[in-house]
Design brief:
The protein is an alpha/beta fold. The chain has a single domain, classed as Formyl transferase, N-terminal domain (Rossmann fold, 3-Layer(aba) Sandwich). It has a seven-stranded mixed beta sheet, sandwiched between helices. β4, α4 and β5 form a beta-alpha-beta unit. α1 packs parallel to α6. The structure holds 5-O-phosphono-beta-D-ribofuranosylamine. 5-O-phosphono-beta-D-ribofuranosylamine binds next to α1, β5 and α6. The site of 5-O-phosphono-beta-D-ribofuranosylamine has 14 residues, from α1, β5 and α6.
Length: 185
Amino acid sequence: MVKKNACVFLSGAGTNLKELLKSSKNANFPININLIISSNDRAKGLNLAKIHKIHSKTINLKNRLQCENLLWELKKRKISLICLAGYMRVLSKYFINNFKGKIINIHPSLLPKYRGLNTFKRVLEAKERFTGCTVHYVNERLDSGKVILQKRILINSDDDEKSLKVRVQKIEYKTYSEAIIKIYS
Ligand code: GRF
């Protein structure tokens, strides 16, 4: 199998990146991660770039020039998929349009419910029975692109924000890899 080149965007811990890296060690997994982009240079996830010897960069993507430079680099490295994994910035319309249909994200809720931040708190306040995670394509509207894969879990009566986050993240790890397999199958 000829693997596609992929890039992961992050801002924080990078636990999803860690799991994607594990999956990519499998010869049958459709992507290799060749580039890691962080929105801040203190993101813990950047350590994984060092450990796995993957080229990484901290970029703000605040203006057109930064977007153009990154788009050029993606082209140079033949990147055909961008996986947002805890990337806390909103990508510009310009950037999304120039990488159309090839940017995906993982979100900790059952979209279209609970777009945006603080999903665990809002889910608990609404006394939902279920929550979960969604892998979706990225479009110009926040957490609104076409759903690729979604998995749900039952909320326990003693769940709090912390326990729910742990449980949802656990299913995120499997779901992200399965969604990437689904895209290329
Ligand atoms: C994930 O839980 C994901 O749902 C959200 O941001 C979190 C990132 O966690 N988009 P990590 O950096 O992958 O540990």
